[in-house]
TrEMBL record, chain A:
<dbReference type="InterPro" id="IPR008092">
    <property type="entry name" value="Ribosomal_mS29_met"/>
</dbReference>
<dbReference type="GO" id="GO:0006915">
    <property type="term" value="P:apoptotic process"/>
</dbReference>
<keyword id="KW-0687">Ribonucleoprotein</keyword>
<dbReference type="GO" id="GO:0003735">
    <property type="term" value="F:structural constituent of ribosome"/>
</dbReference>
<comment type="similarity">
    <text>Belongs to the mitochondrion-specific ribosomal protein mS29 family.</text>
</comment>
<dbReference type="Pfam" id="PF10236">
    <property type="entry name" value="DAP3"/>
</dbReference>
<keyword id="KW-0809">Transit peptide</keyword>
<keyword id="KW-0689">Ribosomal protein</keyword>
<protein>
    <recommendedName>
        <fullName>Small ribosomal subunit protein mS29</fullName>
    </recommendedName>
</protein>
From TrEMBL, chain B:
<dbReference type="Pfam" id="PF10213">
    <property type="entry name" value="MRP-S28"/>
</dbReference>
<dbReference type="GO" id="GO:0032543">
    <property type="term" value="P:mitochondrial translation"/>
</dbReference>
<feature type="domain" description="Small ribosomal subunit protein mS35 mitochondrial conserved">
    <location>
        <begin position="152"/>
        <end position="223"/>
    </location>
</feature>
<dbReference type="GO" id="GO:0003735">
    <property type="term" value="F:structural constituent of ribosome"/>
</dbReference>
<protein>
    <recommendedName>
        <fullName>Small ribosomal subunit protein mS35 mitochondrial conserved domain-containing protein</fullName>
    </recommendedName>
</protein>
<dbReference type="InterPro" id="IPR019349">
    <property type="entry name" value="Ribosomal_mS35_mit"/>
</dbReference>
<dbReference type="GO" id="GO:0005763">
    <property type="term" value="C:mitochondrial small ribosomal subunit"/>
</dbReference>
<dbReference type="InterPro" id="IPR039848">
    <property type="entry name" value="Ribosomal_mS35_mt"/>
</dbReference>
């Protein structure tokens, strides 16, 4: 934890003033509407007027949605430093949210695929969409980052129910806890019930009509069955949505990892396990199928899921997804997440100046800004990195 | 007076006494050797060459390199430490063949001299007509070779170029020809290039190249019985109706009824647009433009609106 006191001296060309920020105090300097901020923190009401501005995600929401992941690590550290989680309202997010508002939910699900270059803001766009989904009462199925399961698998065992498959008990149980936290307000309602019988062992079974929470809790407590419970959960959610009892948002970051040829998991014979031999993969591939209604699916096709320089030539969705995934998802709506526009760039710089992040006296000059624009090539991640030591 | 006396006295002294042994010759005696005669060289001719001189009269015929006549600051060869050796006393420059007698002005003069033996090029035979009447282009190389053997192995290579538009090929024949030929076809210029060098003589290679062209043409016109086993993965272009995408679209639009019979569906305008967009995406390659076209087409297909600016849409 940061225990240093923070006296930040900001020197502008015209005036000098002293600021004191402490870690525990709430954001006393919560600014009203300014060039880079907006007070409107409900994504239901965001529209193009707010484009390019930051809004603060309430800490309670942040805790609920992103406790187990969802915001990239670098941004999380910055949010901790600034004492608030701020998201910029950008066009791709607004576009998807708008389409989700007006889509016909009696038709099969609509799939959106976010794509863009590294650091352009795909994961944060997904975070914005998740906030919207929370506020509009969607049931959220969110996978923060698929390669975490594939590359840094904590534990894997041979599946008992499926021949040749592998379970990932710890990761599955952790994800079920994440699911429970994100949807705790919806799961506490009793009309979300399981529709078919599941027998896990001689003594454990889940009857149809029992609440969904029971299934999730069983997964968290009995991690042996966690992977299979995720598969069951996926089909349950589809049935619930189609019958109209809840609307669902499926958000998967790094979807193209499921179509990688290999994971870092090796089975007992030291052979590499491909993603399609993991039990959990089946659950999410099932969710992306178009045979259910009353839901939306938002995926990202990210270059970072591959290791090294594999598939590094283009960020476009067809290339990143590959033929199989494209055929599965088709027809989908590809949404391009571009780098910052000039307006967004200045808004971001204003935000950094406001948080006293840039101490270099040239940071606020026109020359300084144009230099930063050039160095970061308008890429949000690069800008964050470059402004770090300033 | 005194100096003359001392000299005489010294010489008298020397003749009277013994000769003194001198182990180290004094400088006066050392310089008594004969000096080497220094040949006076004229400055190189290049110093006085005017810039606009007639080079073909300076170098009228093939000649081994002569540094003082060539007004170029050439460097040739390798020096481990330092710069490449200059042109004076450079054996390498003298060994290699030079074509200083065949500079463009010299060639022009040769052409002028030969012109009286030539007839003019027929005016009607411009580039287009050349291609029309003489579609096959044959390229061969001749070499000047001096070695114990006068045969140059590279001289046997024959390159045959022909534009596929000059051949009458239907769709199937063209596809088969392209598969047979592989990398030898350049789609941007539509030229098929056949390079033959497997026979020892140029004439043999030329005849082989002509035979190859004939064989390719006739083979591609034939249809073998096993060609009907062509699968979707073998297709050289993306045919939407044969692909999974078509089934997906029909399935999505007609849900919850599943679509088994895909033959009898009539395409709506949105589906036509979608078909065009996805075919372009697959056939022409993916870039932001084709992706955005695909996005628009999908939006229309799924009845989603264009992005509404500045309007509050409530949940």
């Amino acid at each position: 934890m940061l225990t240093r006191y923070k006296f930040l001296l900001t020197v502008t060309r015209n005036n000098y003033f002293l600021r004191q920020l402490s870690l525990e105090s709430p954001n006393v300097f919560a600014k009203p509407e300014s060039r880079c901020r907006t007070v409107e923190d409900n994504p239901l009401n965001h529209n193009l007027e707010h484009e390019g501005r930051f809004y603060v995600v309430p800490p309670a929401v942040c805790n609920q949605l992103f406790r187990f992941g969802g915001i990239p690590k670098g941004y999380e550290v910055q949010a901790k430093t600034f004492d608030e989680t701020c998201l910029m309202i950008r066009k791709p997010a607004l576009e998807v949210i708008n389409m989700m508002k007006v889509a016909d939910y009696s038709r099969p699900i609509v799939k959106y695929v976010l794509f863009g270059e590294r650091g352009a803001g795909k994961s944060l766009t997904l975070a914005h969409i998740l906030h919207y989904a929370l506020n509009s009462g969607h049931l959220i199925i969110h996978v923060p980052w698929v390669p975490d399961w594939m590359k840094k698998c904590k534990d894997h065992t041979r599946s008992e129910t499926r021949e040749g498959f592998r379970d990932t008990p710890l990761d599955s149980a952790a994800w079920l806890a994440h699911f429970k936290t994100q949807n705790q307000h919806l799961l506490s309602q009793t009309d979300l019930t399981v529709t078919s019988n599941y027998t896990w062992s001689k003594r454990e079974e889940t009857r149809s009509g029992s609440p969904l929470v029971e299934l999730v809790d069983l997964g968290i407590n009995r991690i042996k069955y966690a992977s299979n419970i995720i598969v069951a959960l996926a089909s349950e959610v589809k049935a619930l949505s189609s019958s109209g009892r809840c609307k669902t948002l499926v958000a998967i970051d790094g979807f193209n990892c499921f179509y990688n040829k290999r994971t870092m998991i090796k089975d007992e014979n030291w052979k590499i396990v491909p993603p399609f031999q993991l039990t959990v993969t089946e659950a999410f591939i099932n969710l992306v199928n178009y045979n259910w209604t009353n839901g939306s699916v938002v995926l990202t096709a990210d270059r970072l899921v591959w290791s090294g320089n594999e598939r590094g030539e283009s960020d476009l969705p067809l290339y990143q997804l590959g033929k199989e995934a494209f055929e599965l998802l088709d027809p989908f709506i590809p949404v391009h997440v571009p780098c910052y526009s000039e307006k967004e760039f200045h808004s971001c710089m204003d935000y950094y100046m406001e948080r006293s992040w840039i101490q270099n006296e040239n940071g606020n000059t026109e020359e300084g800004r144009s230099e930063l624009m050039y160095l970061s090539t308008m890429n949000p991640y690069q800008l964050m990195k470059i402004c770090g030591p300033l | 007076m005194t100096s003359v006396y001392s000299q005489i006295a010294r010489s008298e002294k020397q003749t009277e006494e013994f000769r003194v042994l001198e182990l180290v010759k004094k400088s006066a005696q050392r310089s008594a050797r004969r000096k080497a005669k220094k040949i006076e060289l004229l400055p190189p001719r290049t110093n006085v060459m005017p810039v606009d001189q007639d080079w073909s009269s300076v170098w009228p015929g093939p000649r081994s390199f002569h540094p003082a006549s060539v007004p170029l600051p050439l460097r040739q060869g390798y020096n481990k430490k330092g710069v490449s050796p200059g042109k004076f006393a450079n054996a390498e420059l003298m060994k290699i063949p030079n074509f200083l007698h065949l500079t463009p002005p010299a060639i022009k003069k040769h052409c002028e001299a030969l012109k009286k033996f030539c007839t003019p090029w027929p005016e009607e035979l411009n580039d287009e007509n050349c291609e029309k009447h003489f579609p096959v282009e044959v390229i061969t190389s001749d070499y000047c070779f001096s070695s114990p053997d006068i045969r140059e192995p590279m001289a046997r290579i024959v390159i045959l170029k022909v534009k596929l538009s000059a051949l009458t090929l239907d769709k199937h024949a063209k596809d088969k020809l392209l598969r047979l030929v592989g990398e030898r076809y350049d789609p941007s210029t539509d030229i098929l290039t056949l390079t033959t060098d497997r026979c020892p003589l140029k004439k043999q290679n030329y005849e082989y190249a002509l035979y190859l062209l004939t064989a390719l043409y006739h083979e591609s016109q034939k249809t073998e019985p096993w060609e009907s086993e062509k699968t979707v993965a073998d297709m050289e272009y993306y045919d939407w109706e044969q692909n999974v995408s078509y089934k997906n679209v029909l399935g999505t639009l007609n849900w919850p009824q599943s679509v088994k019979d895909t033959e009898n569906f009539k395409l709506t305008p949105e589906m036509e647009e979608y078909k065009k967009a996805i075919s372009d995406l697959m056939n022409k390659g993916e870039d932001l433009y084709t992706i955005s076209k695909y996005k628009e087409a999908t939006k229309k297909l799924l009845n989603l609106p264009e992005f509404l600016p500045l309007e509050y849409t409530t949940a």
